[in-house]
Amino acid sequence: MLKTFPKGGVHPPESKLSANVPIEVLPLPQQVVIPISQHIGAPATPAVAKGDRVLVGQIIAKSSGFVSANIHSSVSGTVASLDPIIDSTGYKRPAVTITVEGDEWVSEIDRTPDLKKEIALSAEEIIAKVNGAGIVGLGGATFPSHVKLSIPKGKKADVLIINGVECEPYLTSDHRLMLEKANELMIGILLLKKALGVERALIGVENNKPDAIRHLKSTAANYKGIEVHALKVKYPQGGEKQLIKSLINREVPSGALPIEVGTVVHNVGTAFAVYEAVQKNKPLIERVVTVTGKNLAKKGNFMVRIGTPISNLIEAAGGIPKDNAKVVNGGPMMGKALSSTEAPVTKGTSGVILFPVKESLRPVMQPACIRCGKCISACPMGLEPYLLIRLSQRKMTERMEEDRILDCMECGSCSFVCPANLPLLDYIRLGKGDVSAMIRARKK
Questions:
Q1: Rounded Cα gap, residues 287 and 176, in angstroms
Q2: For the sheet containing 45-46, what is the strand order?
Q3: Contact 354/326 with Cβ under 8 angstroms?
Q4: Where are the alpha helices (DSSP H) in 260-356?
Q5: Which CATH architecture has domain 123-280?
Q6: From residue 370, how far is each of 366, 373, 381, 421 by CA, in Å?
Q7: Strands 77-81 and 95-100
Q8: Cα–Cα–Cα angle for 68, 72, 75, nearest 5°?
Q9: Is the distance from CB of 138 to CB of 130 less than 8 angstroms?
């Protein structure tokens, strides 16, 4: 019997339309716009000025704290401006705009396709390399990876978990990476194991990717201490807490991090980026992005330089279909609609989905909740969404905190199953913001 988490979960249509399409390198754009905050934590501080000439891999913004990340140029050219731009959230954010002039890389980056297996660095040196390369969680959370690898005093990890689940419908970038870069992924995992001081690593992959599971198992046989586990297809299997419960049957307490139960979780894309950073001296300047949609002419998975306009990706996939009504950044369950396709690809951009009118309209909301309890049954965190929406509407922040609203992972399972079509997740997000603001004010 396949492993899974016991609490909640739903089964949205998988729609993995681009799963069989190999990764294609997207041509360079004429200009990139690179936000200086592409991670959880403090924004980076610009290290270049207008008119400066930069190379691929050069630092253009330095981390401004422990929970922060360096930003590197993904192209070579001239800095055109350091003005705010509208990013994928729809808000203005500080960014470095670079006019592309050729493709010159900093000399220390190894651009050869040769697989580099030998690990010569110590744990501390590996973490320093990860930090310097600006690597963040590529599964969507964008938490600085060096922070996860820096185990607090008094804590200890005994197992590393690698997230290859990719449970969001439509997205296939991780799937293709597991098929096409398995050896690099394995060496990245060995590097993460050494940085953490653990002997065992578990890769979790949902069972709807049998080709990836077979390939990873055969590849992992050549590397010590790496196991591949097939998991039941159930959303949100890729949530950190759900994946830990599925694989090692440990439950992360409310408000706690995975290290509290002796584990650290990294995405497969992050492990590949760690390989490139440590073994090839290559900072995080590009990533794989799925571009898909039922009416899209050329669904695909593209290796894209950070800062490339999303419109370039859509053009490479055949352009916007005539009946298109919405472009979503990320997956359909947790992603957000774009206000402009000129928003840049960032470190957290896993996919771009184009939805036709029929699939873009919200169902008509019913007058009231009928207390059916479906949202409670679907919640993987054991929350009561029907209650949290009411508390959020009434701005009852202290009660929301008591009822663990901050434990919500924003997976959208509650909204997916609600027969009244209530905007449960929208109000819960608002409530989380109110509670977080209250906690910050309390600390001050």
A1: 12
A2: 45-46, 59-62, 71-72
A3: yes
A4: 268-280, 310-316
A5: 3-Layer(aba) Sandwich (3.40)
A6: 10, 8, 22, 11
A7: antiparallel
A8: 155
A9: no
- The length of the chain is 444
Burial (CB < 10 A; 0-12, 13-18, 19+), residue 369, is middle
CA-closest candidate to residue 49, choices 24, 11, 78: 78
Using alpha carbons, select from 410, 423, 420 the residue that is nearest to residue 379: 410
Tell me which amino acid residue 123 is.
Answer: A
Alpha helices in 221-280 (DSSP H): 240-248, 268-280
Please count the CA atoms within 13 angstroms of the CA of 332 that sit on its side-chain side.
26
Q: What's the token pair of residue 57?
A: 């891999």
Task: Return all residues near 118 (Cβ < 8 A) that are at least 6 apart.
Answer: none
Location of structure tokens 């990706």: 313
Cis previous bond, 27, omega within 30: no
For CA atoms 15, 19, 23, 24, the dihedral sign is negative
Q: Output the pTM of the full model.
A: 0.96
Distance between CA atoms of 260 and 353, rounded to whole angstroms? Answer: 36
Which runs of consecutive H residues, i.e. helices, occur in 156-292?
173-180, 182-196, 210-220, 240-248, 268-280
Q: Using an 8 Å Cβ cutoff, are 341 and 62 in contact?
A: no
Q: Evaluate if residue 367 carries a pLDDT over 90.
A: no
Is 362 a residue whose pLDDT tops 90?
no
**Distance from C-alpha of 190 to C-alpha of 271, rounded to nearest angstrom:** 9
pLDDT digits (tens, 9 = 90+) for 243-302: 999 999 999 999 899 999 999 999 999 999 999 999 999 999 999 999 999 999 999 999
Q: Which of 98, 93, 89, 117 is nearest to 57 (CA)?
A: 98
**Closest by CA position to 179, among listed 220, 139, 216:** 216
pLDDT class of 313 with cuts at 50, 70, 90: very high
Whole-number Å distance between alpha carbons of 328 and 331: 7
CB of 184 closer than 8 Å to CB of 31: no
Q: Supply 176's token pair.
A: 């293709």
Give me the residue spans of the domains in the chain.
Answer: 123-280, 374-443
Q: Which residue has the tokens 């992005």?
A: 289
**CA–CA distance from 212 to each of 20, 195, 253, 317 (Å)?**
11, 26, 32, 24
